[in-house]
Specification:
The chain is an alpha+beta fold. It has two domains: 41 residues, no CATH class; 100 residues, Alpha-Beta Plaits. 34% of the residues lie in helices and 28% in strands. The protein is built from five helices and eight strands, in the order E-E-H-H-E-E-E-H-E-E-H-H-E. It starts with a strand and ends with a strand. The N terminus is likely disordered.
Length: 152
Amino acid sequence: MTVFIFQDRRFQPLTHSSVSKYNLQALLAGPLVTIVELKRLPIQEEQTVEIVLIDKFIVPEESKAAFFEATRKVQRFLRALSGFVEGFVYGKTEGESRYNVMTAAVWESEGAFANAKKAAASEFQKLGFNPQELMKKLKIEIERAVYNRSPY
């Protein structure tokens, strides 16, 4: 199987993984696509696997301000670490889940994630910050899981 390499109107190359997200015929017929060059390339499986730490929280309303203040400090620290890809905080707006806040931090590799855990533990100890004690004090419940993430 082959795929055509082309660019969109902003002159951003579209990779074979991004082409698969679109209907190629519709793209070629549409006004937003300029064909720059046609090449036939074999499609290769993408080998990128990132590590995602997902924390789900039940945060009582009266604890939200202190919780978000503490998490912002942790997030600023994590963002500065080598291998950090991206992070998000999600606040529940509707639905039946007991959890009302979720955070996700993405690391480029197992090694980057392992280094981040060590760096965070060291930094927390240096600052005298104990996340477990804070969660208990604020009556916050947490569920944590680590996932692999790869494009499809």
